[in-house]
Design brief:
8-stranded mixed beta sheet; 29% helix; Rossmann fold; GMP Synthetase, Chain A, domain 3; single chain; binds adenosine-5'-diphosphate
Length: 513
């Protein structure tokens, strides 16, 4: 018997539209729109026709989407799947020069934008010469709704999507990196399928589950935990446009809405725990509140534990699907600080600088292998060996150790990075922007602890003789070039920076008080 050289990845939405057409698929809170799987299937079909016939999108063309969370983003993702096109969600927190770079690198054929971001979108299209632009308006008048209506009226046969190969790229998701320039992680169908299976296995998702999507959909957290796993299983995604702690608590407490799943970063839950009414809120219907992006502090886990909720800690990266470690809820307190164990299809190693496995209990860099790991970055194929070992393990840049039972703890990072409110900041990117200022001789950016955001940036700056720059000037300059979460909150002027023998700045010796 011959072995097929690929396993076809079928159309999830078409599947559920046949098996449970009346099942709830999506609920857009801002516009109060509800869609069953049959309705979503229909809109995805119209979106595919609009992209193909109205905007000329074909196989492997990139479709950029710059928009605050709404259900249209999920439709476009699945329309791309039907056409074999590549979904390119953009981080609207980035500044225009950053998005210009990404659009030049990914070269999308169209930029779809929420009307709340019209000004930025028009500028980005002009600067990066994207051939077409189309508006979205959360269900209101827009190019998108007009395109869907025209497609419906045209009476064209449904777009039948061939099964995709596991190795085909579905999404490009840009993450910043230690090189200081954003890199587009290729997200394949294989990654999406195995991430879905592993999320379902670790968080009790069923076709009756309701997931509150409040992390941004341009981010792997909003899209893939538990957005896509919900669509894979036939559950419902309830989409929140912007995060407000008191509204978040009200939604989670709403018995009629019956939210069973949600993923946040520690900052989200820390803010929610401060809302008056948190102590009295009844959250007993919730099955899983996931927390990722950083380790949740014990006090937070205890605050939720008192309400009968075990915050379930996970570890992941955009490049790993993201789920790569998960702690079961019943271990939340006994193993606080741990990110748990690898799910079924993930393999991990902890290695020293020579890539030899460390003795269990010792700290080293965590490497990961498995079907959820990216094949690499867009346009960076030549640099593959910087990101992977010779035998194909992906270098996470996170330092980890295992306890005597094999549970993993992320203890540090080997990559130069800090996390502010759940968003990664790579200091080199900020340092490059500060270097653009005339009077700057040298600078180094570090993350310092912050009660609200976890960490915030501090720039340590050495001025050229006679230069005249103050804190406000440095911050204002960064503000024009960088997303707000990357802009340093403080600037420390110093006579010199500490260096090692080869001239590298010793960041651990910079002032952190
Ligand atoms: P996300 O923030 O959704 O996990 P990113 O790709 O933006 O995905 O960031 C990945 C990085 O976030 C990891 O390499 C790691 O440094 C950090 N991170 C993620 N989960 C944890 C965790 N549980 N504990 C500590 N750091 C984490």
């Amino acid at each position: 018997m011959s072995t097929p050289d690929y396993i076809p990845v079928n159309d999830w939405i078409a599947h559920h539209a046949r098996f449970s057409p009346g099942g709830a698929a999506m609920h857009d809170l801002a516009s109060n729109r509800h869609f069953t799987y049959a309705e979503m299937h229909e809109r995805v079909d119209l979106a595919a026709k609009y992209l193909r016939d109205g905007l000329g999108i074909g196989e492997e063309d990139r479709v950029a989407v710059l928009c605050h969370n709404d259900t249209d983003m999920f439709e476009i993702q699945f329309a791309c799947r039907r056409l074999g096109a590549i979904f390119l969600p953009l981080n609207w927190r980035l500044a225009v020069p950053e998005l210009e770079y990404i659009c030049k690198d990914a070269a999308p054929k169209v930029l779809m934008y929420g009307t709340e971001l019209t000004e930025e979108a028009v500028e980005i299209q002009r600067l990066s010469e994207v051939p077409a632009i189309a508006s979205l308006n959360n269900g209101g008048d827009s190019d998108y709704e007009a395109g869907l209506a025209a497609a419906a009226g045209a009476g064209v046969a449904p777009v039948v999507a061939p099964p995709r190969q596991l190795t085909d790229i579905w999404t490009l998701m840009y993450t910043s990196g230690t090189t200081g320039r954003p890199k587009g992680a290729k997200i394949t169908y294989q990654m999406a399928v195995f991430n879905s299976i592993q999320c379902v296995m670790t968080t009790q998702i069923t076709c009756n589950s309701n997931n509150l999507v409040f992390l941004p959909i341009f981010h792997t957290g909003g899209l893939n935990v538990y957005g896509n796993p919900m669509f894979h299983t036939g559950g419902c995604n309830i989409v929140l446009r912007t995060f407000e702690p008191d509204y978040f608590l009200a939604l989670l407490s709403d018995k009629k809405l019956n939210i069973t799943h949600a993923l946040g970063v520690p900052t989200n839950y820390l803010m929610m725990a401060q809302v008056p009414g948190f102590a009295d809120a009844d959250l007993s219907h919730i099955v899983c509140l996931g927390v990722g992006g950083a380790a949740a502090p014990l006090s937070l886990i205890e605050d939720f534990g008192e309400k009968g909720i075990n915050l379930q800690q996970g570890w992941g990266m955009t490049e790993t699907g993201p789920l790569g470690l998960m702690l079961s809820g019943d271990q939340a307190i006994s193993r606080v600080g741990s990110s748990g164990l690898p799910p079924l299809y993930v393999k991990l190693r902890i290695v020293d600088e020579d890539e030899n496995d460390v003795v269990q209990g010792e700290t080293g860099e965590m490497l990961i292998k498995g079907p959820v790991v990216t094949p690499g970055y867009w346009n960076r194929e030549a640099e593959h060996d910087d990101f992977f070992t010779a035998d194909g393990w992906f270098r996470t840049g996170d330092a980890a150790r295992q306890d005597e039972d094999g549970y993993y703890y992320i203890v540090d990072r080997t990559k130069d990075m800090f996390i502010s409110g759940g968003e990664n900041v790579y200091p080199v990117e900020v340092e490059n922007v500060i270097f653009q200022l005339d009077g700057v001789l040298e600078n180094a950016v570090i993350g310092i602890p912050d009660e609200k955001w976890g960490e915030v940036g501090r720039a340590c700056v050495v001025l050229k003789p006679g230069a005249n720059l103050d804190e406000a000037a440095v911050i204002e300059h960064c503000d024009t070039q960088l997303a707000r979460f990357k802009v340093p909150k403080q600037v420390r002027f110093m006579d010199e920076l500490p260096h090692n023998a080869t001239g590298k700045v010793l960041k651990h010796e910079l002032p952190r008080d």
